[in-house]
Amino acid sequence: MSRKLWVALGLVSMLGLGATACAQPAPAGPVTPNDYAQDENWLCRPGRADACAADQTATVVQADGSTRIEPFKADPEAPIDCFYVYPTVSSDPGGNSDMTPDLPEKAVADQQFARFGQVCRLYAPSYRQVTIAALRKVMMGQASNGDGELAYADVLAAWRDYLARDNHGRGVVLVGHSQGSRILLRLIKEEIDGKPVQKQLVSALILGMNTPVDPAMDAYGSLPLCRKAGQTGCVISYVSFRADSPPPASSKFFGKVAEPGMKAACVNPAALAGGSAPLRSYFADHTIMGTAMRPATVWTKDATVSTPFVELPGLVSAECVSQGGFDYLAVTVHPDKADPRADNIPGDLLVLGQPLKDWGLHLVDVNLTMGDLVAVVGEQSKAYGAAK
User: Quick one: CA dihedral 18, 23, 29, 33, positive or negative?
Assistant: First the structure.
């Protein structure tokens, strides 16, 4: 990815970790959401050639340097739906984005959501999110002009329109990252938990966000964490750090929550019951609309990667850990200097070439486990259909 998009993705959690610190109070008077009966207010909808119809073909590079092409085909007849809220990526100059998706908004849907088209129909509303510009002000010690209530009101309106116009009693998976995950946590709390629609919730993927759970209940509200294959009505959530670079003791960003007696959820999509497991990661290796989106990584010295994504089996593994008061997905890279593959992965937020350790691997939270997440949702879809 370009440095611009890496930074865009990296700033997203400032909103997620403290909305009161990042957003000014809502303007006086009621918030007017968008009309989501108008299809142009959706970033992605089924059957369209939009951001979520991007090619997901991958080159699989084995440890011995051999390669094969892994084709991708979405399933237009998928039996369940996925509803996605994207992270803070808008490059619009104001406090909240407009409703015209820019390149980063389209690119992040390609990166984080389009692959779910194998197992579900894809819905992603455009929404007037708090922008990078607003969060940059906070990073500089200034008051943000972003309105978090406006962003939430849009997503809420889109959710209600989806239920009324598109759902027809189908199961649905919620998918979010960072600002998007924070919005989904509120949506679950206010609109789903304990409501009739909860029975249609296949799962919620709350990624790159501190989801507060009661350790005794292992649940967010009444929604348990997903701990076995085929479990439905549950939550997968984690934040990711390199195993050899855990959250600093003074960090207030990722891996802990403010609620007394609660902890940040950690579910490893590759090992729902716990323990370490190899991750099925998909990293981007392409350009979009002439803008460089390629990470500063040569994936293999002996082959040319010409597909949009690359997969490197066995290079990365992860395990949920509780350490130093933090709960997070500890990611280990297994380099081999003798083989032709890359010996490291991107994902750190860099400032003057140095990683901001508080942020961990936030930039690639979703890329790291994408293949595992799609597989989990596929099993959940089967179980949900069998139960119905």
Answer: negative
